[in-house]
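By way of example, we now present a protein record of this kind:
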Amino acid sequence: MAQRRMFSLAVIDTDKFNDMPISARLLYYELGMRADDDGFVSSPKKIVKMIGCTEDDLKLLIAKGFVICFESGVIVITHWKMHNYIRSDRYRKTVFKNERSQLRLEGDVYSLSDLPPDSAVCLPCGIPSVDNLETQDRLGKDRLGKDSNTAHLHERFGRFWDVYPKKKGRQEALKAFKKIKPDDELLNAILEAVRQQGNTDQWQRDGGQFIPYPATWLNGRRWEDEPDKPVRPAGGKPDYSDPSRYEDVVEEMMHITEV
């Protein structure tokens, strides 16, 4: 097996890829580094645990169509042939012949041979690849819709987690986020509130000591708070001519007196 791997910008420089949380993107790179010469990975769940990601990250990669998972638990990198071209004298054929027989390769992109070429459906790990009609009977429209909604929810949570400055209590924050189930409009409002509150004195004071835990912030619907005044630049002096800054001036004077 080759010791070097490459990644095509045609895949990893897309909004579809970069909208995923950092943990899912990291997992994708790790899977790519450990894949065999045909793009198959024998133990993806071990890699998930090894690098500190969660199975939700793996499920997101499956739902987004970046990897395909088989009943055996083996996965394959969907765009492997776009990433890597291995010289014939160095190439070692995959040992996962059964899984490889279930795939077709079109335009350097793998897809399950029993699904339409343009289909974005990927079978979850543990569910066998069978006749398309039987697959629909087994999963059902409700299951597919639920999987899709779950993937979107985790994607939105990843965007929130990326911008929230205190990276504490991820699982509790995810639970709180699931209760809210924000649509795109509400998510944008939440992200904007995080950015605004990140510039306030409370959130910048003492190295961010007073930033609420993300779960607390979400449960308290703190994005609905009236925005505080932005903190003045480091080393700056209060504007004594601005009546609206009266409280800041008093606080500054008391601080000087105490010193």
